[in-house]
Write a structure and sequence with these properties.
3 copies of one chain form a homotrimer.
Chain A lengths: L5 E8 L4 E2 L3 E4 L11 E7 L9 E7 L2 E6 L5 E7 L2 E3 L18 H4 L10 E6 L6 E3 L2 E3 L12 E7 L6 E11 L3 E11 L5 E10 L5 E11 L9 E4 L1 E6 L2 H4 L18 E7 L6 E7 L6 E7 L5 E7 L3 H4 L1 E7 L6 H6 L4 E3 L4 E11 L2 H15 L5 E2 L8
Parallel strand pairs in A: 18-26
Antiparallel strand pairs in A: 1-2, 1-12, 3-4, 4-5, 5-6, 6-7, 7-8, 9-16, 10-11, 12-13, 13-14, 14-15, 15-25, 16-23, 16-24, 17-20, 18-19, 19-22, 20-21, 21-25, 22-23
C-alpha cells in the first residue's frame, strides 16, 4: 500500500449526476484501524435563502472545520478548543447562489452572502466593482458564489491519515472564461492546522487574465481591543484617504468602535528563502491567535482589512493574501498586478491556517515573522497608490 | 391555561434546518375541542417558475386565505363566499425568487412575479426604480421576493381560537441592511377579517432608512364599472400628468378599458382619534366590497392605483397604505417621506382586510368613513408633486 | 380510433402542481403493439449549476434526441449512428436558470449557459444586447432560460406512431409581455428527422413585438476543414467589418483556427413555391450532414455564424433562421425586421432537422437547394448593413 492510497468518496459529480444530500463517515467505519478518531459529514440546508445550501464538516479530536460546497468550497469556520476562526456577519444564513444577484447595488450584491472565514475572491476577476469594456465586474468575482461541480472526500489510508476535501469550481462562459479550480482542504487528525491547496487551470486555448484574493476573516475571540497583527513588511500603504490616518497604528486593533467603518492597508510582505511568509493575528493577551502561512510567489500582495466597527455591524479583520489589492480590475491592470495564465497552464495556491491556542504557539509564530523581517527595510508610503 | 397559550407548529426555520414541504392540520387534530372548524395546510409547488414556491392556506367555515412564504409572506388571495380579494395578473404562476432578477428592465424585474393581493413593498426601499449613489433601487424593494427564514403557525387554545401565521423576512446585507420583519397574519374562525401585524426591527447599531407600501390589490368581482372607493380625504393629488385628467373621477372606476393603462393618486387620509382610517372599495351595487383598516400613524400616506385596463392586462386597483408614495426613493427623500428607524428599534404596522359580503357591511364601512371625514376640508392639488 | 388518438403523459404542469423527476416509457409498456421500438425518458440533474435541470430523451432504433425542459425546451443534441448534431461548448454543464443572470457582462449573461444544438432566441426580443427606453435587452432574450410550465409527451396510437414532446414556455411580465409558446418536437420512429413546431401566442389585448432566432449549432463530426454550407441565396452580406474579408469564402469552413473568433453573415434565402427552404451543412467528404428545412414565410432571414475557432473555444457553426438578424433590437427595429403579433394572435414556426448519414442523403439535399436556387440572382452586398 503506497502513501497515496486513499479512501475516496464522491459527494457531488455533475458528470455522473451525483449530489448526496446527507452523509457522514467516522474513522471506525473505514478499514483503517490505526487512524485517530474523526467524523466527516455533509448536510443540505433548508428554508429561507439557505434552501439547497450544503455544508461539509470535518471534525477531529481538536479541530472542527466547516466548508460550503455550494459557495465555492469557501470555509465557513474553523474551531479548536476555545478558539474560533470566523466571525459574525449580519448575514447570518448560508445563502444559496440562487438567491444572489452579484450585480445589484452597482455590483455589491456579493455582500448579501458574505459571512465566511475564507472566501475565494476570483478567479476571473476580483476587487471592488468596476467596468471594463462597458461590462460590470462585480465585487470579488464569481467563485465564492459558484456551487462545486465535483466534491470528493479522500482519506489517506496510511499515517498520518490526512483528510482531503476536494472541490471543483468552474467559471465557464462561452467566449470569456474557461477557468476551473480544483480546491483541496486538508486536515491531519491531531493537528490544528487547515491547509488549502488550489489549482487554477486555464482550459482554454488562449492566455487569460486571472486575479485572486483569499479573503480570510477573523472576529472574536481573537479580534478584540489590543489585538495585534504581525507580518514581515517590505512595503505598506493606505488603501484610500480614510486609511491614511490609521497608518501609524496599522498593527493594533480597536475594540468594536461605532462609526469606524473599515480601514484597509496594502502590504507587500517579505518572505523566507522558500518564498513563504506568515501573518499572525493574536489577541491582546497573546494566548490565542491564527497564523496564516502562504507562498508569496503565488500571492505577492496582502490586503489588511480592519473592519472594527460594532459587533452587530460585523466586527472583523481580513487577512487577504492575493495577486491583487482590492482596487477595481482596471486599476489593478494599470498598475500591473493582473496576472495572466497561459493557455492550458495551471497555477497553484497554497495557504495554511494555523489555530494558535496558547502563548507558546503565538510566540513561535511571532518569532518566525521577526526572523523573516530581520533588519530589512520597511517602506511606508503615506498616500494611497490609487483613487477609485 | 392563559389566553396566550397556543399550539405552535414550526414549518420553516433556517436556524434549525427545518423546511416542511407538505403539512396540514385540522381543528379536530388538536387538543382544543371547543374550537370551530378550520384547516391549515402548507404545500410546495413544482414545475416551471413555481418550482420550490410554498403556499400556506388557512380555511375556516367562511374564509380562505392563501399566503406565500417564499414570496415574503405575501397574501395571494382571500376568499369569503362569492367575494374574492385578489386579481388575475398575466403573471399566472407563483414565481419562485430563484427565477427573479429584480434589476432587469432597468429595475422593473419585480413585474415578473407580481400577482398577489398584498405585497410588502419595502422595507429597505420602495417605489419606482431610481438610483442613489450610483446604485439602482429596483421597483418596490426586496421583501416581496425574499423567502421567509422562519414560519410558525400558532393557534390560540382559548376562544376565539385565533390562528396566527408568523413569518420572518430578513433583508440582511453586510454594511447596508440588517432589517428583519416578523410578519403575522391572523384569522379568527368565524370572522371574515384578516389582520396583518408586522414588526420591522433594525438590528444594526446604526439608524437606517426604511420605506414600506402595503400594495393591496383587488380585481373582480368587487372591481367593475361603477365600483367606488371611499376614504376620508385630507389631501389628494395626481401622481403624474396622466392622472391629472382623472382627478375629478378618482372615486369611481371604469370597466375594463383598453389603453387606460393606470392612473395613480396620492392621498393623505384623515383618521379617527386613535389614528385609524378605513378605505372602502365596493362594487357598483354596493353589496360586495373590502374595507382596509390601518393605522395612519404608522402609514401616513395612501397611494390609489387604478389599473382599469383590459381584463387580460390585469384589471385591478391598488389600495396602498404606506410611508411613501410610489416615487423613486430619491424623490421621496427630497420630499421628506423616507423614515428612519433607530438602531435597535422596532416599528409596527397594522392592517386589517375586511371582506364585505353584503350591503349592510358595505354601508357600515361607508358610514365609518363619513364619520371620520365629517366636515373636514379636502385639499385637492391639481398638479403632481413631483416629476419622475 | 382516429389518427389523432394518442397516449398523453403529463410530466410537468404548474397548474396541477406536477413535476415528475424521473420517468421512462418504452413502446412495449403501452397498448400499441404495432409500434416500433422506442424509449422515452426524463431525468433530473444534480450537483453544481446542473442542480434541478431536467432532460428528456427520445430514443428510437436510429435516433436519439435530448431536450432540456428547464431551458426552454431547447434541443441539447441529436444523434443518429455516427452523426451527432450538437457541439462541445466550454460550458459543459446543463445550467439551471436559477444560476443564470442574463444581464451580467453588459447583457451577455446568456453565454454562461450556451451549449445547445438549438436554442430559441426570443420571443420578446433577440439579438445582441441593446437598450430601448433605458432598459437593457440582454443577449438573445429569455425563452432559452425559461423552464417549461407544462410538458406533455404524446404518442400517436396509429402508424407511424409519431412521438411528440410538447412544452409550454411563458414569457409573462405584468405590463410588458404575455407571450406563451407551445413548442412541439416530433420524432417518427424509423426516421432520422426531428421536427419542431412552435406556436407563439400573444395572450394580451395589445399587439406586441416579437423576434425569434432558431439558433441551431453544429460542430464535429460534420463541421471540419472543408465542410460546406449550402443554401439558395437571394442576398448575402457581412454582419460586421470583420466578416467582410470572409465574404468570398462564406460557404466553406476552416478547421479549428486560433484567433479566428467568429464571422457572421446575413442571408436572405430563396424558397420553393410553398415558401420552404433548406440549408445544408455537410462534412468535407460529403457523407455526413444536416439539412435544416423551414418556412421562410415564418422565418424570412438567416444568420450564418461561423465560429471556427479552436476546439476548446467551441468549434461550431450556427445556422440560424429567424425573423431578425443578430443586431440589437433597436437596429432590427430601424431596419424593419421586428415583427408584430396582434392581440390574441398565434404565429407558428416550423423547422426540421434532417440527420444525413450517407452521401446519397447529402446529395439529395444539395439537389433540392440547387433546384430552389435555379438561375435566380444572388445579390452580394459587400458592406455591413448596420454598425453596432
Amino acid at each position: 500500500m503506497t502513501a497515496s492510497a486513499a479512501k475516496n468518496i464522491v459527494l457531488t459529480d455533475t458528470a455522473n449526476n451525483i449530489e448526496i444530500s446527507e452523509w457522514s463517515v467516522e474513522n471506525r467505519n473505514l478499514d483503517i484501524s490505526g487512524a485517530p478518531a474523526f467524523l466527516i459529514s455533509k448536510k443540505t440546508l433548508h428554508g429561507g435563502k439557505q434552501e439547497g445550501s450544503t455544508l461539509i464538516t470535518v471534525q477531529t479530536d481538536n479541530l472542527k472545520v466547516t466548508l460550503i460546497p455550494t459557495r465555492g468550497m469557501d470555509i465557513y469556520e474553523i474551531v479548536s478548543g476555545d478558539v474560533r476562526l470566523g466571525w459574525d456577519s449580519p448575514v447570518d444564513e448560508i445563502v444559496h447562489p440562487a438567491y444572489m444577484n452579484l450585480e445589484m447595488r452597482g455590483g455589491l450584491g456579493w455582500l448579501d452572502g458574505f459571512n465566511e472565514m475564507m472566501v475565494r475572491c476570483g478567479f476571473e476577476w476580483t476587487g471592488h466593482p468596476g467596468e471594463e469594456n462597458g461590462r460590470l465586474m462585480s465585487l470579488h468575482g464569481r467563485a465564492g458564489n459558484t456551487p462545486a461541480s465535483k466534491v470528493v472526500v479522500s482519506i489517506d489510508e496510511t499515517p498520518p491519515y490526512a483528510i482531503h476535501i476536494k472541490g471543483l469550481i468552474k467559471e465557464n462562459t462561452f467566449k470569456f472564461s474557461n477557468l476551473e479550480t480544483w480546491t483541496t482542504l486538508t486536515v491531519v487528525p491531531g493537528e490544528t492546522t487547515v491547509k488549502v491547496h488550489d489549482e487554477l487551470t486555464n482550459l482554454s486555448d488562449y492566455d487569460r487574465d486571472y486575479q485572486i484574493i483569499y479573503h480570510s476573516n477573523f472576529g472574536a475571540p481573537i479580534l478584540e481591543q489590543g489585538a495585534k497583527v504581525e507580518v514581515a513588511v517590505k512595503e505598506i500603504s493606505p488603501f484610500n484617504d480614510y486609511a491614511v490616518n490609521g497608518l501609524k497604528d496599522w498593527q493594533t486593533y480597536l475594540g468594536p468602535t461605532k462609526n469606524f467603518d473599515e480601514m484597509v492597508f496594502n502590504l507587500v510582505p517579505y518572505a523566507d528563502d522558500q518564498g513563504m511568509t506568515t501573518v499572525l493575528l493574536h489577541n491582546r493577551k497573546g494566548d490565542q491567535g491564527v497564523a496564516v502561512k502562504y507562498d508569496t510567489r503565488q500571492l505577492p500582495v496582502l490586503t489588511l482589512w480592519k473592519n472594527t466597527d460594532t459587533v452587530k455591524q460585523g466586527y472583523v479583520t481580513g487577512i487577504e493574501p492575493g495577486t491583487s489589492y482590492a482596487y477595481p480590475r482596471q486599476i489593478e491592470r494599470e498598475q500591473g498586478r493582473v496576472k495572466t495564465l497561459a493557455a492550458g497552464a495551471t497555477q497553484s495556491f497554497d495557504l495554511e491556517y494555523h489555530v494558535l491556542t496558547n502563548s507558546s504557539a503565538v510566540k513561535h509564530a511571532s518569532q518566525e515573522i521577526k526572523k523573516i523581517q530581520g533588519k530589512k527595510d520597511i517602506t511606508v508610503i503615506s498616500q494611497p497608490m490609487a483613487i477609485e
